[in-house]
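From the methods appendix. Each design record in this collection lists the tokenized structure first, followed by the designed amino acid sequence. Records were kept in a plain field format so they could be parsed without special tools. The example shown here is representative of the layout used throughout.

RECORD:
FOLD TOKENS (691 positions):
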């Protein structure tokens, strides 16, 4: 085995795009590792992972072979009947093959395949040194990186995410000769732009992390992340609160700094009169600051910024951060105050002039349709219809507010604040906000009954309207987010435990669209929603066979769909499941091929075999036993009882000829199988479980 030595590749650049940096670092790492692997170079990765800062991408591998293993090649030549003439001398075909291989034809070996014996050239060549391979591997890794719009600099033809300034390439203690972007590889990196703006010479790869740390650069993103979290939490505790640290904000800050240092800042308490969501969004989205919350989760007047230096005058840094945030907060307060003067109800007047979609009318038209749907849904789930209509009539009004115009992500949230200030009930105000939930993948559904009603009504109208207007998603195009709305609708119904007839809801939505002279295909839309559910359950680990077994029945209620799916999961774990699934599959095939009418009832007098009499008795008993469970939708109990039919089913198929010559016997046996199949298929098409 080739001797292993550590490998370091570092490409120094100008500041790389923050959101793209993790992907670039991972692609660079993967490209180098894959390049070495496909060339057969021995690797020891250990816990190696991508290293990066805003100014560099690095790959540090603990063990890389010094050379490839011996390269074995085998090239097949002509068959003997073509290669040799009648006297056993080489033909031109064999001579040409030998010449191409660079040897005399007598040195060729022979091999045999299913067509006969043929000549073959086998060769063993020494492996190339890793140092000679690395320049090409490096170029391949760079070329494969996801850079949609490469930058070009100087008068050169090459391009990269940002201009490159230095290149380190060490294998063991040796510099590997290579050139990239006009840079010659060496052993010199660079330290922090402000704390250590000078060269950092590296004797060997394993010195890299510590040498850069001494130069005020933390090259491991996970180390920077841990330091940021620790310092932010410490600063928040000092302020008497706790920091709000979201994954997205943290990830971006990690990729903005090389040497993070937390700075505690504050703003005027008067700004806390503004909805905290607006202030938090400004801090996190625009400035990448960390808000400080009190014990109840309310925003305080303090926040934390992350500097890229350890300043000698932290107070001045804090003043700078506070200066940056103050104008944004002042704008938010102005918008909020002006919106309060107008009031949520009066904002709704403007919705009449805003087009929702050409075929579907204005936003006000959509509001009216959603309000009618909410009034229909509310009594079915124990909510107040009048409150549901009121909440729906106000839910879109904040789209006309100054606050939402400036902060679009506050749709619903701003409406909730304005509703409370305007004297609406707490339930109505909360529903206005919750109507948008889930707002994104993994978000919670609405929690309040009224919020759930609005969330369902809103999505039913959006889906029906989208399909009626010909806006069905195609490929990556989904302008009205119908896929997301379908999943949000299904999740809200299922996770709320609502027994709602989905087709009836869609029909109600169609009724609301009648005034626009457009209609959705309810069957097509139902199937579209089920298709989104398939991915939802796949993420939960539900096998596709289980999903398909229930989907074939197309239950009216999605909550009922969920309960059937749970029951199938329990049933599939029973030892009888596979045999009964296979039997039901066999029953379906027999009944599909049956000719003529099948009797509606079995005739006990025609049950001649012991096995068919036993099965008839067992099926009749099972039907009696499962009737109440089906009525109460206790599908686990139904399938558990049916699982006990296995002995009689097995005995029937082992000892009874279904397609008897006597038509009366045959019809009676088909009637028995029909009765059995119908009961086995009451919960789901269990034949899908048969492998």
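DESIGN:
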């Amino acid at each position: 085995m080739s001797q292993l030595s550590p490998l370091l590749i570092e490409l120094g650049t100008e500041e790389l795009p923050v959101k793209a940096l993790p992907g670039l670092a991972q692609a660079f790492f993967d490209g180098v590792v894959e390049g070495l692997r496909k060339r057969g170079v021995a690797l020891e990765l250990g816990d190696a992972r991508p290293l990066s800062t805003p100014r560099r991408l690095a790959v540090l591998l603990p063990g890389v072979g010094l050379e490839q293993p011996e390269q074995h090649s085998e090239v097949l030549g002509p068959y003997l009947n073509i290669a040799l003439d009648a006297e056993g001398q080489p033909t031109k075909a064999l001579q040409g093959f030998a010449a191409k291989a660079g040897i005399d034809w007598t040195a060729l070996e022979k091999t045999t395949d299913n067509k006969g014996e043929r000549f073959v050239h086998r060769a063993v060549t020494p492996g190339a040194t890793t140092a000679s391979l690395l320049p090409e591997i490096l170029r391949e890794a760079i070329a494969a990186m996801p850079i949609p719009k490469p930058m070009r600099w100087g008068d050169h033809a090459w391009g990269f995410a940002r201009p490159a300034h230095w290149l380190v390439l060490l294998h063991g203690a040796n510099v590997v000769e290579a050139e990239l972007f006009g840079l010659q590889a060496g052993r010199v990196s660079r330290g922090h732009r402000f704390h250590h703006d000078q060269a950092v010479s590296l004797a060997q790869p394993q010195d890299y992390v510590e040498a850069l740390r001494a130069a005020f650069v933390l090259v491991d993103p996970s180390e920077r992340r841990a330091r940021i979290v620790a310092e932010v939490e410490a600063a928040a505790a000092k302020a008497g609160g706790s920091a709000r640290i979201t994954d997205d904000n943290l990830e971006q800050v990690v990729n903005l700094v090389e040497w993070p240092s937390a700075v505690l800042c504050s703003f005027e308490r008067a700004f806390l009169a503004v909805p905290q969501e607006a202030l938090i969004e400004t801090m996190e989205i625009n400035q990448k600051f960390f808000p400080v919350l009190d014990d109840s989760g309310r925003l305080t007047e303090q926040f934390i910024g992350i500097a890229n230096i350890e300043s000698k005058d932290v107070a001045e840094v804090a003043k700078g951060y506070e200066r940056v945030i103050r104008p944004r907060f002042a704008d938010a307060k102005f918008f909020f105050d002006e919106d309060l003067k107008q009031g949520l109800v009066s904002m709704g007047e403007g919705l009449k002039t805003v087009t929702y979609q050409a075929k579907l009318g204005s936003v006000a038209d959509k509001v009216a349709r959603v309000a009618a749907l909410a009034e229909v849904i509310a009594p079915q789930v124990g909510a107040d219809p009048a409150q549901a209509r009121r909440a729906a009539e106000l839910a879109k009004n904040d789209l006309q507010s100054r606050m939402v115009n400036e902060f679009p992500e506050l749709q619903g949230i701003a409406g909730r604040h304005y509703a409370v200030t305007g004297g609406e009930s707490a339930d109505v105000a909360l529903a206005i906000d919750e109507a948008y939930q889930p707002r994104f993948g993994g978000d919670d559904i609405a929690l309040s009954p009224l919020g759930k009603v609005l969330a369902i009504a809103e999505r039913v109208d959006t889906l029906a309207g989208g399909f009626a207007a010909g806006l069905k998603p195609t490929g990556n195009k989904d302008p009205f987010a119908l896929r997301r709305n379908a999943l949000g609708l299904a999740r809200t119904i299922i996770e709320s435990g609502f027994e709602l007839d989905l087709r009836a809801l869609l029909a109600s939505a169609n009724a609301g669209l009648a005034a626009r002279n457009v209609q959705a295909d309810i069957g097509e839309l139902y199937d579209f929603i089920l298709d989104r559910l398939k991915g939802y359950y796949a993420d939960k680990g539900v096998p596709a066979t289980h999903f398909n077994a229930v989907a074939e029945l197309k239950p009216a209620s999605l909550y009922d769909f969920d309960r059937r799916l749970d029951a199938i999961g329990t049933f599939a774990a029973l030892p009888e499941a596979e045999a009964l699934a296979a039997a039901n599959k066999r029953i379906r095939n027999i009944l599909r091929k049956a000719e003529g009418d099948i009797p509606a009832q079995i005739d006990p007098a025609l049950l001649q075999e012991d096995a068919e009499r036993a099965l008839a008795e067992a099926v009749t008993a099972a039907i009696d036993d499962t009737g109440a469970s089906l009525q109460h939708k206790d599908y686990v109990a139904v399938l558990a009882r049916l699982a006990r039919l296995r002995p009689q089913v097995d005995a029937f198929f082992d000892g009874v000829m279904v397609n008897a010559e006597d038509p009366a016997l045959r019809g009676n046996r088909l009637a028995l199988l029909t009765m059995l199949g119908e009961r086995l298929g009451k919960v789901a098409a269990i034949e899908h479980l048969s492998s």
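APPENDIX NOTE: Residues 108 and 414 are 83 Å apart (CA to CA).
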